[in-house]
Amino acid sequence: MNLHNKAVTLHDMSLRDGMHAKRHQISLEQMVTIASAMDVAGMPLIEVTHGDGLGGSSLNYGFPAHSDEEYLNAVVPKMKNAKISALLLPGIGTVDHLKMAKDCGVSTIRVATHCTEADVSEQHIGMAAKMGMDTVGFLMMAHMISAEKVLEQARLMVGYGANCIYCTDSAGYMLPDEVSEKIALLRAELPKSIEIGFHGHHNMGMAIANSLAAIEAGATRIDGSVAGLGAGAGNTPLEVLVAVLKRMGATTGIDLYQIMDVAEDLVVPMMDQPIRVDRDSLTLGYAGVYSSFLLFAQRAEKKYGIQARDILVELGRRGTVGGQEDMIEDLALTMAKQKGLI
Ligand SMILES: C[C@H](O)CC(=O)C(=O)O
Ligand SMILES: [Mn+2]
To answer: Ligand 2 centroid vs 341 CA: distance in angstroms?
Structure first.
């Protein structure tokens, strides 16, 4: 693979996807300290919001330690070079949330939909683009559909005004060949002015390999998390990706030793549990399940005595997608009744 002199924009998720792993309980001080250290290390883009994006605070998704507005107002003014992004899932985040984020100084808005539902992003993408924001269409659970279907949905988002399209492996299910196929088709068929991005999860141990496959196929924006802090087995560990890209001659603008230190000294000590490929997170990848379902399934295991792995396999078999968090407890209850446990 020849990535010599290839410029890659890395985008940190530890303070947004990592919110899932932290049950949305990151303090303002932790947000500011970690974001500031990443800024100094040269991280160009950092995402800050509830794990489920703007407006995610709810019984269904979990109540955070602070509101999105509080997090953004704490972090944005402290950034010297890094830009701050916010995620928005139409139906959870509203147009008012979008305006609030813009007023707080957010520069990049990432409008996320299930991979077959790009049509619900028209209003939010349209408004973000009109406000002059870097506007990203983020197609989640992209393993569930063919490359041609991803392209069809991406074209809708581009038509609404997105200047960048993400192929998102929310379940950490994809293997490098699938990433290559999907990214290559997007790159070949979308206008050259549209950037392509990839967001991976490490549930099958493939996050670095998949990110490299994405770059080789034409992606220029790659998501990851310092120390991998993210849902499931976490996101692509950025300090590792920086080291790999450096060895391959690609450029990220990030200082390797500084980002290693952010991972080791700031992010790892904040983890509530090790973020690793274990039997439950591996099951997410193997069965193609939305990564943020992990802690919900583990809580249901404690409550109803059904193994999280069995719950996750059944969620995969049923083809559940993001937004169906309330089904997890319901399913565990049904399984427990069937087994005569309650
Ligand atoms: C709301 C999800 O956590 C977005 C994401 O990071 C993914 O689909 O993966
Ligand atoms: Mn994710």
So the answer is: 34
The model's pTM is: 0.98
Identify the residue whose C-alpha is closest to ligand 1 atom 2.
52
- Ligand 1-lining residues (CB < 6 angstroms): 17, 51-53, 112, 140, 168, 170, 199, 231, 291-292, 322
User: DSSP assignment of 169-184, as one string?
Assistant: -TTS---HHHHHHHHH
d(CA 35, CA 52): 19
CATH number of 279-338: 1.10.8.60
Domain 9-270 has CATH 3.20.20.70: yes
Series of mean pLDDT values for 10-residue runs along the chain (342 residues):
94 98 98 99 99 97 98 98 98 98 98 98 98 99 99 99 99 98 99 99 98 98 98 99 98 98 98 98 98 98 98 98 96 97 93
